[in-house]
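User: Can you predict the 3D structure for this chain?
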Amino acid sequence: MSNLKPSERILCALDTTNVEEAAILAGELSPHVGGIKLGLEFFGANGPQGFLEVAKANRNIFLDLKLHDIPNTVAKTIHALMPLRPKIMTIHTAGGSAMMKAASEAATLAAKNEGCERPIIVGVTILTSLDNEDIEAIGFQNKVSMQVVKLARLAKESGLDGVVCSPHEIKLIKESCGADFKLVVPGIRPAGSDTGDQKRVMTPEEAVSLGADYLVIGRPITKSDNPAQSAQLIANEING
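Assistant: Here is the predicted structure, written as structure tokens:
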């Protein structure tokens, strides 16, 4: 992933359910980012048709639905979503090895059937809104960093292309899973910006220097007075 330009590493999360607003923003940001992230809220409100409207402005869509179900259901869902031709899709690593294997295989077969490029399938490890106290309350015995690495290893063994992790696990995962294992990293905040509801954050420059492949950045771009300029400034920050 080292051949990516700084701007190509940025996946902008659109925090809106308004299709027209999302499409306009996606078009405005298209020259300055590597893709647009559409999540559960947007997809729940607008479905495939909303996705396609945004895709007209930017074909590189990160469809962040965090699929988590029995293997057969996840595989069938990926087949159902493939006509949308997303660039990246997410599933939950907590779904287990069989589910992750089914997702990876389904992505390969569905892309072949659709005649399109296979999407990057990444597994969500521990949400960046959670810290050690939170995951202990859920029932995990390991601290966040160790649990993330454990799940990342399982994801690699199960055939996933990479994982979603916080900036603070980048180095550990790269050391454990190798340089080619892709890391999609939320919890990115430019220096001096509000951390919002993210508990494990880092600046774009720091994250990329540690080995992050893609950076998920939302409000620092979308809530600024000039989103395109803000995205460009972040790219400049990555470039050092």
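Residues 73 and 214 are 28 Å apart (CA to CA). The first strand starts at residue 10 and ends at 13.
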